[in-house]
Amino acid sequence: MHKTLTSIAAALLLAALGTGAQAQNLITNGDFELSTVATDSFDTYSNLGGYTATLWGSDSTSGTHKIVDVAGNQFMQFGGGDSASTAFGVGTGGAYTLSFDYEGSGFWALYNSDTSSYVSTGPLVQINGMGTDNTALTLSNSTNYKLFFGSVGAGLPGMVTGLQLDNVSVTAVTPVPEPEGYAMLVAGLGVLGFISRRRQQR
């Protein structure tokens, strides 16, 4: 009995330690997965509706905003001069990371909707080529933001027209531990406390 309880306590504590805190992505549908788009096809849109919290809205000048599927992976494709945005709120202020994959030429901008000011410098931050962007941000407590992406228009030297975007996320640098981890830790400590009391009673 004693060995069994000790084993249970050890298992719960190990499980609690193994339950790593997952950084919550504040961006809704940053991977642009749309169930109506078939594999190796695309869908043109003006506003991505049907999501639980915020929407990716678009400002289309060419009519070529698309969700493109390549072998089951979907991403947003902008035509020349088009832009899109999504709103999100921050409950706890502090250090955050904006991350996204891109290919082409364009820009991003982060706007504080509560103070009517840009968090990003410029206010537009230029992106060109192909890669993953990871930008450190300091976001304010209980504040609403709007994140913009856009492609460059035709005719700018040294830049292609159009932008492809995927895996957009805004996450806290120090994520909050998951409730399941706390629950297993408390249960494990409770079992150890019970074992300790049983020993003292003997």
TrEMBL record:
Residues 1-23 form the signal peptide. Keywords: Signal. It comes from the Bacteria. The keyword Signal applies. Residues 175-199 form the Ice-binding protein C-terminal domain. This is Ice-binding protein C-terminal domain-containing protein.
